[in-house]
Amino acid sequence: MRTQTKSPPSQRKKYIAHYKPLPWQINPWRDKSRIMLLTGAAGGGKSRLAGEKIHGFMLKYPGAMGLMVRKIRQSMSNSVVLFMQKTIIAQDPRVTFRPSLFRFEYDNGSILAWGGMANQEQREHIRSIGHEGKVDVVWLEEAVQFEESDFNEILARMRGTAANWTQIILSTNPGGPEHFINKNLILGKLAKVYYSNARDNPYNPPSYLESLEMLTGIQRQRLLEGKWVQAEGVVYREFDTANIERVEPNPELTVELGVDDGYIDPRAILFIQRTPSNVIVFDEIYHSRHLAETCVEEVIQKCESYGLPKPDICIGPPEAKELQNRFRLADIPYRFKAHKIVEGIAVVRRLIRDSNGYRSLIVHPRCKNFIGELTDGYKYPEQGSRKDDENPIDKNNHAVDGFRYWAYSRAR
Questions:
Q1: N or C: which end of the chain has fewer CB within 10 A?
Q2: Which 8-state DSSP code applies to residue 234?
Q3: Which residues pair with residue 16 across a beta bridge?
Q4: What topology does CATH give the domain 2-223?
């Protein structure tokens, strides 16, 4: 998709890379709609198009103010910013990278900044970007992570005058049908929508296409088929891709464990850290037919691999006597707080998404079993007739129960 133009001898290490859009990308590349949504299945090249377009806008319109946003600013460095720096902008001599200022500066006076909207500090940073708060073009990457209030705040900033048009570009894989993107932008027709899938991108290796074909359940419907759907009868219907984020553990924070015991059924152990505003599940152990002592050893080894101390506490079921003893021998306290299943589920739901729309729970994508149970595995007996005082089916609930034990004890 890129070619390199030779530079003068004084700039041998610099080059300007030229973008050649895929066939499906041509129309959205030319699109000047106020709101443009790039969605569909995984692997179609949505992010590549969005990155190229916002870079092209900065180059074409001198003095333009551009903004790239993900829900959590810290996740930008190793995702969007790295992608722009290494792939889109590359060695372009017209652009200077200013990481301490959270922006790229263009020779023509344009500025491409980045930020997040996870808390008040990050929101204030976003509000300070641009002359008099004016922005010309915005890219919301992994847009399903944003709440409607986030989008509205960005919408109110679109007062730039560098060109005779402004644009918000949203790129995302599908989420649940109740998400504001589906309800307002797609069904409500507030955005110009472009769909793509992995087969639209000839640069995808065959192994990637084969991996997508192996997906099942809700993830298959969203990532392979590109549908905005939710599993029927799922217990944690509030959970969405908005709760999934690549947040790595912080060595300055303590680690806690949420555990559900098992041997024939899997034993699930979740690794959890807390910040003032979030609960972060950054890894999991999910094994069948593993001895308790083996799992405790793996917990310690995993913490060491992250440069973290041993967990401060483990929360799990009261009947897991052997596992309790093994944790205590490893000098990791084991606790349990009695509660009804429906009470614990209520606590977990508030962490996933509270009544104001805030999502405290963040789950790293590597926690595949936990995510699978949240999105498609753990269900009520009779789909479509769920009652709030009804217990779910006791199946596909090992990781979610481990988190429920932890949440009721530690997060209420």
A1: C
A2: B
A3: 5
A4: Rossmann fold (3.40.50)
Separation of alpha carbons 302 and 297, rounded Å: 9
Distance CA 51, CA 105 (A): 15
Class of residue 5 by CB neighbours under 10 A (exposed 0-12, middle 13-18, buried 19+):
exposed
Cβ neighbors of 278 (< 8 A, separation 6 or more) are 118, 247, 360, 361, 362
What residues does CATH 3.40.50.300 cover in the chain?
Answer: 2-223
| CA dist., res. 109 & res. 64, Å (int) | 7
Which backbone phi and psi does 199 adopt, to 5 degrees?
A: -75, -10
How far apart (Å, rounded) are the C-alpha atoms in residues 44 and 38? Answer: 10
CB under 8 Å to 351, separation ≥6 — which residues? Answer: 279, 360, 361, 407, 411
Strands of the 95-98 sheet, one edge to the other: 95-98, 103-106, 111-115, 65-69, 137-141, 167-171, 35-40, 192-196
* DSSP type of residue 86: I
Tokens 């992010």: give the residue. 47
Sheet with 361-363: strands ordered across: 334-335, 313-315, 256-260, 267-274, 279-287, 361-363
Identify which of 411, 195, 212 has the alpha carbon closest to the alpha carbon of residue 313.
411
Going residue by residue through the chain (412 aa), what tens digit of pLDDT does each one get? Answer: 544 444 444 444 556 667 899 999 999 999 999 999 999 999 999 999 999 999 999 999 999 999 999 998 888 888 899 999 999 998 899 999 999 999 999 999 999 999 999 888 888 888 888 777 789 999 999 999 898 989 999 999 999 999 999 999 999 999 888 789 998 999 889 999 999 999 999 999 999 999 999 988 888 889 999 999 887 788 998 888 788 888 999 999 999 999 999 999 999 999 999 999 999 999 999 999 999 999 999 999 999 999 999 999 999 999 999 999 999 999 999 999 999 999 999 999 999 999 888 899 999 989 999 998 998 889 998 654 455 567 999 999 999 999 999 999 998 6
